[in-house]
Amino acid sequence: MFMKQILTNSYKTESALIYDGIRLLANALHDLDGNQWRVDPISCADGHPWPHGTTLLNYMRQNVFYGMTGLVKFDESGFRSDISLEILSLSEDGVDVSGKWLQRGRIEKYEKWTKHYLPQLLEKPLIRITSVFNDPFFMLKKSSDGLKGNNRYEGFVIDLIDELAKELSFRYVISPVKDKQWGGRDKKTGLWNGMVGEVMRDEADIAVADLTINSEREKAIDFTYPFMSTGITILFKKPTKTMSLWSFMLPFSTQLWLYMLGILSFVYVGRFSPYEWTDTTPCRTDNQVLENSYYMSNSFWFAIGGIMQQGSDIAPKALSTRIIGGVWAFFTLIIVSSYTANLAAFLTVEDAPYPFDSVEALAAQTAISYGLVGNGATHRFFKSTNISTYKKMAEYMEENANSVLKSSNSIGRDAVEESEGKYAFFMESAVIDYITERHCNLTQVGGLLDSKGYGIATKKDSKYRTPLSEAIVKLQETGVLRELKRTWWTQKAGGGACLSKGTPALLEMGMKNVGGVFLILIGGSVFSTFLAFYELFVETLRETSNMTDENRVKNNKNTN
User: Fold this and answer.
1) How many angstroms separate the CA atoms of 519 and 248, rounded?
2) Weakest mean pLDDT among 96-100, 240-244, 346-350, 467-471
3) What is the DSSP letter of 335?
4) What is the tally of helices (H) and strands (E) in the chain?
5) In angstroms, what CA-CA distances link 452 with 1, 27, 211, 218?
6) How far does CA 542 lie from the centroid of its chain?
């Protein structure tokens, strides 16, 4: 694409290099920000260098992407590696790209991919494709019984190959890789396993799967233009807040509850107003008795009736008590409304803070273990990195390999779910996006540790690489790849399950949420029952005593 723009004088080589340089810096800053570094403002008066410069440089060295000048990648010394230059040739139609010079010292020649050269390209009747089972890329159909050939499989990879077949008019046969591996090199023998090994041994023409493009694999095979971007990040179980029986008291602080208990005594002010003292026997003039309804128990009853929004049959008569009653009614209105509004949130929203928010925080603690798929691309990233934090984590995972390294992403996902927040799993963000759409108790924590892509693997100097790359670019430009991902990530195979359940934080209320209210009800009922029996006992004793006194008086009269 860059060479076509050069030929049409759309922009110069310097412009393409500047664009890729700015994009490299932007990617590194994005990764740095994703790990939530705290960056202090730079002072012009301070002569000290920026403390995060080395870290930013390391992120830039780790960054790999396809830019306007091709593959942008750096070696350990910081120099650009895997450089390739396009070779121009003069044809009947003018100047055209006829090959490529590679940094490794060889020249790759190819014809421009057009329908005219299709018979020359597809010398074999079929393209043999290998893939690996991994949802949602390559899966066996649930109703695959009785089906044969390609019809047994489904997934993003199948749809991608179908689109490529439509674009390039080829046929294919696809089969799962025999050893169920993506592709890694044995350090002792130097041999490759998985899909990479099958392509190298000519057991398959191409490999289409979530196969990560990295420098080690590119030494053995070639990759097309990436059809999906991804990066390493962390899968973790969403923490939940442990609710107590007294959760209904959470909307107000302890201090506020004490203030409300103390404010009840102010209602007792009605006892001091002379206008609240009334004559209970107005018809008698010989013995006037003044009484006040606002004695201690009635005052508290009046106050509690206001709080409970039930009112009271004790009506204030004096202006002072009416004022305090009105203010108390306004106070309880606001307090009860605020309590009711917050109570629903406290009883149903059980979001809890995460124990870590970045890979640095995860590495700094010891309560939560972490792991990944052994001998995969993510594992090799940690082994080969120059960043001290990642090296420390790689050493930890090697020391505890038996417990933290898993054989597949699905086993790692199950380990995260069953660990109850004691295990985190490193995997690629594309797969995490798929998992979190279906497992609502799982989530991604932190940003991306790197930036890379999935590509189609071919043999070195394969004639399939260039036409497939151009077809992938066309599918990207037309939005087909984006639509395929949306279909398999958010629609098919259980996609959108978490959205259909509504907000995950809103849960059913159980006894653990409101158990304290029941305890208060039971406690109050038991206390009132004992109090009723006590009152009955006291009243019985009183009546018995009165009857005894009356009998004694009668006996005395009879004796006299």
Assistant:
1) 12
2) 346-350
3) H
4) 20, 20
5) 20, 11, 10, 13
6) 71
Highest mean pLDDT among 46-55, 109-118, 291-300, 304-313: 46-55
Task: Please answer whether residues 195 and 211 qualify as being in contact, where contact means their C-beta atoms are separated by less than 8 angstroms.
Answer: yes
For the stretch 279-288, what's the b/e string if a residue is b when 16 or more beta carbons lie within 10 angstroms of its beta carbon? eeeeeeeeee
For 456, phi then psi, to 5°, come to -85, 130
| CATH, residue 170 | 3.40.190.10
- pTM flag (> 0.85): no
pLDDT of res. 457: 96
Distance separating alpha carbons of residues 299 and 301, to the nearest angstrom: 5
Q: Is 406 within 8 Å of 412 (Cβ atoms)?
A: yes
Q: Determine whether 331 is exposed, middle or buried from the number of CB atoms within 10 Å of its CB (0-12, 13-18, 19+).
A: middle
What is the C-alpha to C-alpha distance for residues 240 and 263, in angstroms, rounded to an integer?
A: 36
Q: Does position 138 have pLDDT exceeding 70, yes or no? A: yes
| CA distances in angstroms from 210 to 157, 411, 453, 519, listed in the order given | 9, 17, 9, 56
- CA neighbor of 378 nearest in space, from 429, 443, 435, 434: 429
- Shared domain for 489 and 517, answered yes or no, is no
Whole-angstrom Cα distance, residue 101 to residue 110?
11
Q: Collect all residues with Cβ–Cβ distance below 8 Å to 352 and sequence separation of at least 6.
A: 239, 240, 241
Same domain membership, residue 342 and residue 252: yes
Q: Which residues pair with 185 in a beta bridge?
A: 192
Distance of CA 519 to the CA centre of its chain: 37
Q: Which amino acid is at 260?
A: M
What distance in Å separates the CA atoms of residue 78 and residue 83, rounded to the nearest whole number? Answer: 14
| Burial degree of 126 (CB within 10 A; 0-12, 13-18, 19+) | exposed
At position 286, the amino acid (one-letter code) is: D
Q: Given 3-state DSSP classes, what are the helix, strand and coil percentages for the chain, each rounded to the nearest 5?
A: 45, 15, 35
CA–CA distance, 381 with 230 (Å, rounded to integer): 14
Residue 554, pLDDT score: 66
Strand partners, 70: 67
Q: Are residues 49 and 130 in the same domain?
A: no
Q: How confident is the model at residue 504 (pLDDT cuts 50, 70, 90)?
A: very low
Same domain, 66 and 139: no
Checking phi first, is residue 185 left (phi over 0); if not, alpha (psi -120 to 50) or beta? Answer: beta
Residue 505: pLDDT band (50, 70, 90) is very low
- The domain boundary, picked from 297, 325, 348, lies at 348
**Position of tokens 């450089």?**
83
Exposure of 22 by Cβ count < 10 A (0-12 exposed, 13-18 middle, 19+ buried)?
Answer: exposed
Q: List the domain range (segments joined by +) for residue 520.
A: 513-552
φ, ψ of residue 47 in degrees (nearest 5): -90, 0
Q: Pseudo-torsion of CA 492, 495, 499, 504, nearest 10°?
A: 160
